[in-house]
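Duplicate of earlier report; Methyltransferase putative zinc binding domain-containing protein input re-posted below.
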Amino acid sequence: MELLTQRTCCACSSDQSERVERIVSPVAAAQLDFDEFKEYWRGFRSRQCFFDYERCSTCGLLYCPSYFTQEALDALYASMDDNTAGEASDVLSRTQARYIDFLREHSSDAETYLEIGPDIGLSSRVALKGSTIRRAVFV
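Output:
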């Protein structure tokens, strides 16, 4: 399995011919093999592990030029344990529905829904059901 892919700047597509600034992880994710990284993928550690970030010399965006391939991400997510702490899914769904109800009270006529880290999609499902939302973005 191909583990990593190299990316151009996602804002301007520059290929980073020169590095302006770099933020380096204490444990370099790009140097680990798949099984080693799986150990860092879940939970909290005293030594953080992430991919290095670079500032684009063309537009100034701070971004991550090395990252997992989609195949590697799929395998990592598939290896994760249940993160619901054993709660029943109907209880979790009701909780997420309350959050969405609160948002609807304060943002009528919203047409776009952005969710960062949608997890198993409980909030997304509630937000999109019977709403004015025409577009959903999941990051």
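The mean pLDDT is 83.

Merging into the original ticket.
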